[in-house]
Amino acid sequence: MSRKLRFIWIDDNPKRKSSANTLQDRLGVTVEFRNAYNQDLLSLLHSITEQEEPDLILMDHWFTEADSHPFVGSTAAEHLRETWPECLIVCVTAAGPEKVGSHKSDLYELVIEIEKISNYDKILISIAQSFRTLRKKPPETTKQLIKYLRAPKDDYQSLEAVIPDAIKISYGDKGCLLFISKWVRNTLMKRPGFLYDRLWAATLLGIQEKSFHRVEHLFDKAKYSGIFAHEGEGFWWQSKLRSILSFLIRNDLVKSDKVLLPWEMGRLLHNITPKDHSKCYLSNEAFPETVAYIDETATKRAPMRLRYTVRHPRFEDALFFEEIRMMKGRA
């Protein structure tokens, strides 16, 4: 049996010890609280790195009450990584991610507002467990990394082409796992193409997102189960979704005498009725072919007919990934 996950929480607010204890009870992990209040932070960090590296460190960003003020968490993160190059560090702050800044936030795996930390329970466990898996046997080649993704064989060649050179040239080097983590979580799992989230998967099938649960079981073999997967956020391999649909057609589980597009096939699945069918957000027409943002803020998305969308100016095109689009105006 593997040992329990061990986290360290570093904060200059003694009241956060209660939050650390709550997190420990909620996640079933060990959370050691290190109080930086009126402490020399460098000495505290040194005492921490003299011990065994934890699975994850949670840390405040603004150490205003530490004796070594001014001192920020990103500087502390750099100090910790001098000893532990692949240390998994999550920023827990009352300020909010936008106050941390993009440059400094790059030193963290996540930036979480303290009031919302319970929303990240499954993500924290997923990241810590995935790092533990990768540390036991770090990938030495791109093919080994793809196996950790548990990708369909049909996607192997395309994945080899899009995995960043920064990863390919650093296999075996300290820090490679951090590159892998950020690419998998922030590109592969965030940008539609290889993986579809629930809204994209439903739109591919021609149904509403809220109706996807009716047929979700048919696509269990398409669900992403590789590193950094977690129960709270589902992703499905696009290629596998399509192949399962084709299988259903070929085996007469879905009756049709003509060649169908995926969104036409999906509407023939059992338990799907016309009330479940998706419609274009802008025109209310049937068969929206894509998912697009409502505007340039890139916050809200909806199914849309392709002709009512344009390329989103904030996103560059990426090989083998979907073009990110937004609504262009009223019909």
Quick recap of the structure?
With 331 residues, this protein is of the alpha/beta class.
Main-sheet strand order equals 2-1-3-4-5
Structural class estimated from helices and strands: alpha/beta
Shape by Cα distribution: elongated
Determine Rg (CA atoms, Å).
23 Å
Number of helices: 13
- Low-confidence segments, ≥5 residues, pLDDT <50? none
How many domain units? 3
- End-to-end Cα distance, whole Å, is 60 Å
Q: Count the beta strands.
A: 11
Tell me the major beta sheet: 5 strands, parallel
In helices, the fraction of residues equals 25-40%
User: What are the secondary-structure elements, in order, as H or E?
Assistant: EHEHEHEHHEHHHHHEHEHHEEEE
Give the mean pLDDT: 90
Measured by DSSP, the beta-strand proportion falls in 5-15%
Structure, described:
The chain folds into three domains: 6-128, Rossmann fold (3-Layer(aba) Sandwich), CATH 3.40.50; 137-188; 195-327, no CATH class. The mean pLDDT is 90. It has helices spanning 16-27, 41-49, 73-83, 97-100, 102-105, 121-136, 142-149, 156-162, 165-168, 176-188, 198-204, 238-250, 262-266, and strands spanning 6-11, 30-35, 56-59, 89-93, 110-113, 195-196, 236-237, 290-293, 301-304, 309-311, 325-327. The termini are far apart. It is an alpha/beta fold and 331 residues long. The strands form three sheets. A five-stranded parallel sheet has the order 2-1-3-4-5, covered by helices on one side. Strands 9-8-11-10 form a four-stranded mixed sheet. It has a two-stranded antiparallel ribbon with strand order 6-7. The protein is elongated.
